[in-house]
Amino acid sequence: MESGQWLDGQGRPISPNVITYNPLTSDFAVAQPEMALALFETMQLLELVPDVNTYEAAASACTRSKQPERAIKIVFEVF
Predict the structure, then answer these.
(1) Distance, CA of 55 to CA of 62 (rounded, Å)
(2) 13 within 8 A of 7, measured Cβ to Cβ
(3) Helices (H) and strands (E) in the chain, counts
(4) Burial 43-52 (b: 16+ CB within 10 A, else e)
(5) Residues 6-58: tens digit of each pLDDT
(6) Helix, strand or coil for residue 3?
(7) Going along the chain, which residue ranges are E strands?
(8) Rounded distance, CA 32 to CA 15, Å?
(9) For residue 2, is pLDDT > 80?
(10) Comparing C-alpha atoms, which of 9, 11, 23 is closest to residue 53?
């Protein structure tokens, strides 16, 4: 296994994508909003296209971490 490689429940390698990132981002948005925002930024660096769930989680993380201006910026990325 390569360093940083993701594995499924059967130990098979999987490629990170919006489907694998969304649950992580959503869960971290509640308990660790800064981690959720770091995941959101990582997705962008990997050129993964966020969906509405990703944007909602990132905006929620901004709100929880008291960054309303950043939340507005994220919401406007959708439009």
Answers:
(1) 11
(2) yes
(3) 4, 2
(4) beeeebebee
(5) 888 899 988 889 998 999 999 999 999 999 999 999 999 999 999 999 999 99
(6) coil
(7) 6-7, 13-14
(8) 24
(9) no
(10) 23
Token pair for 31: 């308990």
Nearest-10 Cα torsion for 10, 47, 45, 63: -90
Q: In the predicted model, is pLDDT for residue 77 greater than 50?
A: yes
Place of tokens 């994220």: 74
Residue type, 1: M
Name the residue type at position 23: P
pLDDT for 3:
53
**Rounded CA separation 7/70 (Å):** 32
Question: Which of 46, 24, 45, 47 lies closest to 35 in space, CA to CA?
Answer: 24
Tokens at 57, concatenated: 């989680």
